[in-house]
Amino acid sequence: AYNIHVNGVLHCRVRYSQLLGLHEQLRKEYGTNVVPAFPPKKIFTLTPAEVEQRREQLEKYMQAVRQDPTLGVSETFNSFLRKAQQETQQIPTEEVVLEVLLSNGQKVKVTILTSDQTEDVLEAVASKLDLPDDLVGYFSLFLVRETKDGAFSFVRKLQEFELPYVSVTSLHNPEFRIILRKSYWDSSYDDDVMEHRVGLNLLYAQTVSDIEHGWILVNKEQHRQLKSLQEKVSKKEFIRLAQTLKYYGYLKFDPCVTDFPEKGCHVVVSAGNNELNFQVRLPSEQIKEGSFKVTRMRCWRVTSSVPMSNGPSGSSPGKSEVKLELAFEYLMSKDRLQWVTITSPQAIMLSICLQSMVDELMVKKSGGSIRKMFRRRANGALRRSDSQQAVKSPPLLDSPDASREPMAKLSSKLTSVSLRGISHSSSANDVGTNDFHGNYAFEGIGDEDL
């Protein structure tokens, strides 16, 4: 069997024949032109070298399907992964109570099926809280790890190909929890959420929590004003004041390592306001702060390296041996692109943040909305309404397609930057285009801008 990992944690085990079955189903539904090539069957027993070659080919196949805008969001692909996850973890379909945390530590208990997917669970939580359907899309479920001081370390946003109950229970560690938080970056969307009592309460609880954990920076005078608004229970005014504070709406990551401005620097990265903010401790112990705008990242990629020996299968998932890196190519000046690397167990979560910032920018550019409407079908299953389809988040490892128009326009905009093919990257590891997220919100900078 082949182990499929998500974020360095075992998601499911599948056999070659099962993957072949998925491939044939996808071909039947979408045609041979859309579905990538599948590693061929072999008549004779595979040699160890051929086994490894097939493993690599299957990995590339699964990533290629996942990053295809049609196949990656298809019910065929996602239900295959959900079913395989449930079978691997040997959790039968039954009714269970799942505990979902809110930012203020309050627990919401929902009765769900073990086989309920992420969207079903999100809907169940929203329903329990009386959050209106048209506000559900402003929130997401996140897998987090509770730290000793009561704060949270973000593992990932739960995806549509997983079963939240199975994902959290299969980790066999009470430190892993599911939390409900807002999932947009632009604080102007706060107005939509604050229109409704429950939306306002959720946003208020998250803002208070982020201030208490030091994610939002507050000076003494601001702290006094906030306390006074809290005492008056002026939640909207509290949020309005918080919106003016540094790092409002940012997600703070655990301390990690970067190669910018020099190798081996310790850094605290925060994501928000369409940027990655770096607070870097230089070897001289000096602290420097700077930001990388998402609109100046030409592309990025996540790479992982796994040691050959994974240890016993029962080893603690928290002590993951997988080394993850996020690298992005940044337009430092009008004619200079430079790679910046962050080595962090949260690299995939960072990538998801970058992708969702780009999605939001593109939706705004096209005049779209992030409101997601849900409607129930007769069989009780949830289906997205048409209004949501336009802003469906691209799959995790989205690679640039040279034929897409935004990329073509880009080269004419950037006269002084050589835009070589992304696959001919100058980075140390030469990797193919499939490993990259092309950034369609990338904005070239002309002489007049600098």
Automatic annotation (TrEMBL):
Any Pfam family: PX
Chain ranges of the PX domain: 1-88
Top-level taxon: Eukaryota
Record keyword Protein transport present: yes
UniProt-listed CDD domains: FERM-like_C_SNX17, FERM_F1_SNX17, PX_SNX17_31
Keywords: Cytoplasm, Cytoplasmic vesicle, Endosome, Lipid-binding, Membrane, Protein transport, Transport
Domain Ras-associating: 94-185
Membrane topology category: Peripheral membrane protein
Localization, UniProt: Cytoplasmic vesicle membrane; Early endosome
Start and end residues of each stretch annotated as Disordered: 379-417
Name the record gives this protein: Sorting nexin-17
InterPro entries per UniProt: PH-like_dom_sf, PX_dom, PX_dom_sf, RA_dom, SNX17-31_FERM_F1, SNX17-31_FERM_F2, SNX17/31_FERM, SNX17_FERM-like_dom
GO biological process: endocytic recycling; intracellular protein transport; signal transduction
Protein family according to the UniProt entry: Belongs to the sorting nexin family.
Keyword set includes Membrane: yes
Molecular function GO terms recorded: phosphatidylinositol binding
Free-text function comment from the UniProt entry: Critical regulator of endosomal recycling of numerous surface proteins, including integrins, signaling receptor and channels. Binds to NPxY sequences in the cytoplasmic tails of target cargos. Associates with retriever and CCC complexes to prevent lysosomal degradation and promote cell surface recycling of numerous cargos such as integrins ITGB1, ITGB5 and their associated alpha subunits. Also required for maintenance of normal cell surface levels of APP and LRP1. Interacts with membranes containing phosphatidylinositol 3-phosphate (PtdIns(3P)).
Gene3D superfamilies for the chain: 1.20.80.60, Phosphatidylinositol 3-kinase Catalytic Subunit, Chain A, domain 1 (3.10.20.90), Phox-like domain (3.30.1520.10), Pleckstrin-homology domain (PH domain)/Phosphotyrosine-binding domain (PTB) (2.30.29.30)
Major subcellular site: membrane
Any one Gene Ontology cellular component term annotated for this protein: early endosome
